[in-house]
Amino acid sequence: FFGKYPETAAMVADYSDEQLRKLSRGGHDPVKVYNAYLRAIETKGKPTVILAKTVKGYGMGEGGESRNFTHQAKKLEEQSLLYFRDRFQLPLTDEQAKSCELLKPAADAPEMVYMRERRAALGGSVPARNAVPTGITAPSLDLFKESLQGSGDRAVSTTMAFVRILTALIKDPEIGKYIVPIVPDEARTFGMESLFRQVGIYAPMGQLYTPHDADIFLFYKEMVNGQILEEGITEAGSMGSFTAAGTAYANYGVPMIPFFTYYSMFGFQRVGDFIWAFADSRGKGFLMGATAGRTTLSGEGLQHQDGHSLVLSSTVPTCHSYDPAFAYELAIIIQDGIKRMYEL
Known about the structure:
Layout: H1 6-11, H2 17-21, H3 30-42, H4 78-87, H5 94-98, H6 110-121, H7 145-149, H8 158-171, E1 179-184, H9 193-199, E2 201-202, E3 222-223, E4 229-232, H10 235-246, H11 248-251, E5 257-263, H12 268-280, E6 286-290, H13 309-313, H14 327-342
Parallel strand pairs: 1-4, 1-5, 2-3, 5-6
Helix pairs in contact: 10-12
């Protein structure tokens, strides 16, 4: 193997026959893998490639080593288990190997000592989340009195009803500062322009230009301390903001209540994995699928006709989904949601 080229022969010129017999493939040699990785991270100013030679089904012996059917192998026969035990010098009896007993090294074994040292260097054992109770309470239904009474003879869209509820929440002296309106694309589509003047659009450097609608009452007002996150056409970026706000209760002890309002068709269908990650992070907040179409409004063409978000949302176990049509339903759902997030 090494004698084919002078360069490779020189690499093992001082190896004994016994050392050559014990050589393993580089990709399965912990020392070689470690050294290759160490050299890679120490190399500066140029890319590094590690070629690690491995064998499919390594250690399975006749049960599947270097065979294509390894991917379909669900179990090993007894002889293969014994071979595996012997090959890796595992301290198991024949019966223990055949019954696949778990093997845990002694507490003072070098590998156990090493793993504990590395874990300590990384900050301790598996991270634990200890969220401090925030003391926040959901507002009473009196805050939503206008929504509970109905609109009388006037027809009001569900989205418009939501904006009124959102406005009431922002004005609430107790929880108003914790409300985070997040909008991808254009907030005017959802009738949120009234909030521009009230709380402003967050911009870290403030308003650095004159908006084209500066001469109207509800102009596009950006502020250093603005409360609306107007993200532009990026549902993914908005989900980043939604996640930051929705997990702030655990990371910073600040009980934020984000409302991510988006075109309904571009929620679960576009950023479903991010929504799953948000739930997996124990995030808290409201996903508002607006302008869904298929009801009173047809949306912006057939591509906006969303009739299946509720089906997709069922794939996220901690996401409680609703399909409200009336303002009073929205008020009850939102109040109950805040209560479940921070009181129960």
